Amino acid sequence: MEEPKFDADFWPVQATLPMLARFFSDEWRQYLRLQPDGSMSADAFTRSLPESVFWRPGTALRETAGDSAERALDHLDSQHVSRAVINPGVAAAASAVASPYYAAEIARAANDWVIQTWLDRDPRLLGSIVVPIGDPELSAAEIRRIGDHPRMIQVLVAYPHRLLGHRTYAPMFEAALEYDLPITLQSGGAFAASTRGVSAVGEPESHFEYEVSWIAGAQAHLASLLCSGIFDRHPRLRLLLSGFGIAWLPSLIWRIESELRSGRVAKPQGLSRFPGEQIREHVRFTTSSLEVPARPHELVDLLAPIDGCELLLYASGYARGDDQGGQTLAGQLADDQRAAVLRTNAETFFRLSLEQTRDFTAGAHSPARQT
Q: Within a domain: residue 359?
């Protein structure tokens, strides 16, 4: 029997304004010209939430109508997924919206949509708390609103307006720690309004360039967190970098350690420990968009010096397209390492109990679905 998996990045559908309509407040529905059923008046200025300039309808995600929920649950069955963390696909939109209050309304509606539309369907599904990252105080308020929900297990952000180690994010981190929730930084997203794109020096000019440039953002945010001392100030803080790959991590660790040994520049006051130690304790990475070379064993060899397989959480990225990187890597690993990447690393990272992580794979023990 195929090994059960814990899917740390599951996109069953892409949430849009019509889908979220009934979860918006009356004031925002009126402002957006939304009817309770999600229909819009003829002069409504938009149908969808903001997306990347490289997004094209029908190419990034499955359509949301009809049997999409059943297809998603069938995927869990066929792939032997015991738990799956839902990504509603609106974190980038909440970051791109210029108005922090509109961003907060998008986040609130998306979170209520996940809770009421998805979590009751199947006990394998877990939720993500989307926050309006442009306003850390509003982000903290949204975390505190639903942070005690037992199946909302992470705080999800995309494209922070500053590097994550900046002091302005303290309210968000403190709220997440109150509920023992990790922060997950999602790759990709919109180039609009207040977001800067994936690099410090400009925006990519093609979809291909956009896809391969995501790692730049992850490196900068991780270096910021390491150098700011935030993991020393908050020993229980956990960070998940989702969709950025991991092959770049050894070079970042070695670069920082090389600078520390050389003494060429003053060490940041917050950097009290070597980065490898902090990363092993606080940071994890998903296998979605994993860089798998033509000879997959080379990735295993690259990660071995930093115990990289202990840092990886399987993530399918369903249903954005075929993403076999995690399973390809798992095929190169010994039994204990493979089980860790596919399931137990995630169970430990999200701190789920044995009862919460019992195997809900297909067959006689599959949970009943809500119809």
A: no
